[in-house]
Amino acid sequence: MLMKKASLVGAFFVPGIWLCAAQAEAYCPAPASVTQVEVQRVVDGDTVRLKDGRSVRMIGINTPETGKKGRTDEPFAIAARQRLQALVTASGGRVGLSIGREGKDHYGRTLAHLYGADGENLEAQLLAEGLGFQVGVAPNNALVACQQTAEDVARRARLGLWRQSPVQSVAQLSRSGFALVSGQVSKVERNRGGIWIELQGALVLRIAPEHASQFDSALLNGLQGRVIEARGWVQDRSRRGGVKSSQVRWLLPLTDPSMLKLTS
């Protein structure tokens, strides 16, 4: 995850946070029918392993990464995992499972929303506590609006990941991965490859043709010169055989309008 390091790592909860988090179930109420499943273990803040062998990646949230391959834990990664474990434990180790329109990711994990015993959406609860970032990836974007509302609670109150702004400039990009990036739009182009929104520096946002209809054309047409915030998984094109002279280094694909917003 590409973001400035927060000043605190690990547990950080205070009574005010619990008050905000207690409202999370109102943001994304459980559907009429969910499948009850038993959790074997919590892998990290957005992934659980079920006793039936499935690995479930929660839809609509991206939490900080725990350390792998010699890397240290990212800020709040352990807090996110511990909080999800607490929510699962409070539900007796059983959660409600609602699989997304796209049921698996490219790692073979099941993509689903999870719900506690009281019907609270676990992604929204973590978002409201500042333990992850909302991210809507089509076609699994049914709960985008309510999950954005949950994240806004933490952002306004500067909880968790929002204690210090995780938003970075294009110039601060240093590696591939999830990022919140802010920059000024230098140009917007359309071609057979989709819609390309280039930011000053070395980042281009791409909306593929199959997702273009979801975006507001009038908004896109008026982006040039505006400052925007984008979120998603940044790709380093220099690591895929080099960057052509006409291309910029960093690419961030957009699949849902919630991944892009005007800031000025």
TrEMBL record:
Keywords: Endonuclease, Hydrolase, Nuclease, Signal. GO terms for molecular function: endonuclease activity; hydrolase activity. Residues 1-26 form the signal peptide. InterPro entries: SNase_OB-fold_sf (IPR035437), Staphylococal_nuclease_OB-fold (IPR016071). PROSITE patterns: TNASE_3. The keyword Transmembrane does not apply. It comes from the Bacteria. This is Nuclease. The keyword Protein transport does not apply. Residues 33-164 form the TNase-like domain.
